[in-house]
Amino acid sequence: MSRPPTFTPPPGTRAYQLATGRGTFAVHDLAPNGIEPKGTALLLPGFTGSKEDFIALLAPIAEAGFRAVAVDGRGQYESAGPVDDQFPYAQGELARDVLAQAEALGGDVHLLGHSLGGQIARAAALLDAAPFRSLTLMSSGPAAVTASQQERVKLLQDGLAALDMAQVWEAMRALDPPEEADTGDGNGPLRERWLRHSPAQLTATGEQLRTEPDRVDELAARSLPVHVLSGERDDTWPVPLLDTMAGRLGARRTVIAGAEHSPNTDRPAGTAAALIAFWESVESTQEPRSR
Length: 291
Description:
single chain; 8 strands; alpha/beta; 43% helix; Rossmann fold; 11 helices; 8-stranded mixed β-sheet
């Protein structure tokens, strides 16, 4: 679970429900102050995460001239979704949500997905790459998560089938190592976020993490600039596997020193700098967007 440093977005951020052709989605939206944005970045969170996982990236992205829009996917935190029907959370449905979000933002967006969000972002680009200037896969691998992570996801799925969300939260906290225990300040918003997730969303997307096929070659066939970014350690997809995936994609590869599975919260300054450098390189080499 990503642990954002705060749940309070930076000054100037608009928090609202983005209206799309597939419903509304909660976003944090920060644009550069007083200038036309160089581009728009659409940021998709990972499994059990939310738009708040990108809070520390919003200000540096906007200061570099890009509009940053972090979104809660269907059934995540402040975006509504059914609690007992898994069909709306099929990967294809979530990918179509992303296409609708990109359209609502005017298209031509730099798409970023963290972990599970990366696999949903990939699925969206495979359905239709036209709305995207680029794709960044952050700590998101080529196929299913490691065997040990598959076991953890299965344990969570079993818990969701037998317990309510509050009971599952308490069970998860009991399993946390001491160094990951939250202070009183952090436990409240993290717990609130967890309780507002849809159990059907967690069950369905957890199954995707356990069974996702390798679709790297399909993505490589698309003419889309790709960036593979990760920390220097990752127990969800091993870093050498991400290195190999980047090679197969012909992608830019960035490893953030001192970060693990969530470089966006572990080392936000270095992560933001790497993202901005990639997006600026794309803007300098692609045809200008129509205004």
